[in-house]
Amino acid sequence: MFDRRVAPNAISYNAAISAMGKGSRWQLALHLLTTMRMSEAPNVRSYSAAISACEKSSQWQAALCLFGSMPGNALMPSEVSCNAAISACEKAGQWQFALGLLSSMPELRIAPDRISYNAAISACAKEGQWQVALSLLNTMQAIILKPDEISYSAAISSCDQGGQVELALGLLNKMIPNNLRPDAISYSAAISACAKRGQWHGALSLLREMSELRIEPNVVTYSAAITACDQGGQWQLALDLLSLMPEARVVPNEITYNAAISACEKASQWQLALNLLSLMPEARMVPNKITYNAAISACEKSGEWQLALTLMSLMPEAMLVPNEITYSAAISACEKGGQWQLALNLLSLMPEARVVPNEITYNAAISACEKGGQWQLALTLLSMMPDAMLVPNEITYNAAMSAFEKGGQWQLALNLLSLMPEAGVVPNDITFNAAISACERAAASGSWY
DNA sequence: CAAGGTATCA
């Protein structure tokens, strides 16, 4: 094709740009768009393919630049180019930009179509903007753009992200009356909504409903249902679902196993968690960072701090780099095992491992100090948080408060309590109980004055 | 030759 005798034409360039997009090579896609100019002017499809390439590589600014440069290149943006730009905003979590593009379409003399709305609904869904997503769905109906299965699934997903189970189920139930056929994706989104609220019963009902309607669940459906059982405290049911997958001819993947390992965590079933981890290679699955993090947490919840640290130490040979979640889970494991020195050691190793601790990491470390009776260290960690650009939250304050209480530091406890309002943290029962207890201990031991 | 929906870890 690049033989000088046969010049590539627009079609071959467009195909190449599209292929770069599928391989997440956005720079190469843009490079092709540039080199294309030497033989002929890129057309609307070239731009659409390039915008889509940027979208697939999460380069939303580049996508918007391309879209915005079309009129200057004597090209009228099409529905497709605009929809690709909306998708780029969606992938990057820029729901306001997605809505802005949708609303600017009429000025550009492009009528938004079903795909424009669906992409915008998805953008809102990803960011938990369920009210906006639902209003877009209503707008679609109002302007006689009949929402389809994808519109509904995206809207259900917005309710899922927003924790609105009832609304999610309501939308699912409206599909058939609207002559739409719910599929595995619509059901998976609804099951996920149940999972977020721990409604395992609802999730299993939806699975049953699927079999009545002859809708084949897929691996995502099962993974979501396993998570629903996990969140609902039904770890046995979660594992039952995993074991039922072969006869349903659904092949579990890494995510399914990760969800199942997570279910073992809540049940303090570290043996089962490690067993699942060990079964993965023979099922041709490669455990990833999330798998290890879930297994480390399972050990943590079971009080197996040594095993948790062993798992963490095995990550490099599995070519996995621990992240802040790994460290936080491992620090929590040390906390549960009364190993405050090891917990602090892990925290101190983070900078050289180029892992940035977050609030949760500090909270775990402060709790470890509290359990180890190290109120001074808890105070030191608390005071280090602003330097690390971290804002202590309710959990941080409560952990520090308990540390002061255990250490008989009633003045510090009361001082901390008094600082909470200006830090914008509302003390709760745990906070007050710890503070009161600190004072009672002081009074009982006569150290009040 | 271009555009839209589902699941996992502290």
Automatic annotation (TrEMBL):
PPR repeats: 43-77, 78-112, 113-147, 148-182, 183-217, 218-252, 253-287, 288-322, 323-357, 358-392, 393-427
Entry-linked PROSITE patterns: PPR
Cross-referenced InterPro entries: PPR_rpt (IPR002885), TPR-like_helical_dom_sf (IPR011990)
Keywords: Repeat
Domain of life (superkingdom): Eukaryota
Protein name: Pentacotripeptide-repeat region of PRORP domain-containing protein
Source organism of this protein record: Polarella glacialis (Dinoflagellate)
